[in-house]
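Task card 7
Instruction: Convert sequence to structure tokens.
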Amino acid sequence: MSTTTTAPRVKRELPPLMSVSDSAAERLRSLYSKAEAGKLLHIGVKTKGCSGLAYDLSFVDAPAPSDERVTDKGITILVDRKASLYLIGTMMDYEVKAMSAGFTFVNPNEKGRCGCGESFHV
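Output:
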């Protein structure tokens, strides 16, 4: 009679769905207190551009049943559950440049971007 014992599987911790940089948190605090008061930023992914996918940002009054709620640095954002596989581990930043300003994403799942930076693929 032989017995085989297997060690219990060690569950590794998943990375956070998303995080926000200090500058993104500061910008969202400003938007949430003024122009977008009472709303939340909703982030999704849609088919667009030459690489296939693009980030889709909008302000919504309330979360949809399929939204994931992410809170980081005291700021809450909503992530479309259908986009979560594309966004796991992504950090949202806010950049101000000489001629533009806006939210940017550092996404470890991206395999490439189009030349204009509008879209990405995984």
